[in-house]
Amino acid sequence: MYSPISEDVEWGGVKPLKDPTYEFAEATVRRGFVRKVLALLCVQLSITAVTATVFVTSQTVKTWFAANPWTLWSSLAISFILVLILACSEQARRTHPTNLILLFTFTACESLLVGSACASYDAKVVAIAVLLTAAVVAGLVLFTLQTKMDLTSMGGLLFSLTWTLIVAGVLQLFFRAPWLHIGICAGGAALFSIYLVFDLQLLMGNEELALSPDEYVLATLNLYLDIINIFLYILQLVNALTKSSDR
């Protein structure tokens, strides 16, 4: 008979052995973790979708927010602060119900920002972007479920690509070339698609790195931001390509 725990320096002194009972319990906990994260994510995306729909379809709402820009600037500031809190404070994102209050306050603020962004585009462009985003996300989920590629070990590369995108965005402020804007939008959508696969693998826990089941708020936040960024880049890309084809 052997103990299900063995000494291992990399695991802080202990590492579970391949015990069937342990593996079954771990898999059960992981499935519950995934269900909780996906449920929270669906609520977040629903709130954002409803808010964006109101912005796109209601001229009254557009006019009011245009006349009161402080609401959007406040939402931007609050969103930024809440992301920092949730990303940096383990206590804040693990303490219930504080973590959910912070998460959904962030969601409300971010939904206003996404809604105001959508209001700047034609409803047809927004609808196309939504459908394309849904197709991309569905495809990436299927890819994640069947791929043997481990993206959780590529955090350094993703960080470098993120900085490349930021530098390109700064260059765009000085060079107003349409091709540069289209390239940045396509690159941004591709980058956050990779981030989505990365975060899905952290969620499912089948690769080298995995999130603890206690980090359900962080996991939800990561996936939400990935999907929102994919949508916003696709929205800009569709709009830019539509304008180019109309010329």
From TrEMBL:
CDD domains: LFG_like (cd10428). It is a multi-pass membrane protein. The chain crosses the membrane at residues 37-58, 70-88, 125-145, 157-175, 181-204, 216-238. It comes from the Eukaryota. One of its GO terms (cellular component) is membrane. Keywords: Membrane, Transmembrane, Transmembrane helix. The keyword NADP does not apply. It is found in: Membrane. The keyword Membrane applies. Belongs to the BI1 family. This is Uncharacterized protein.
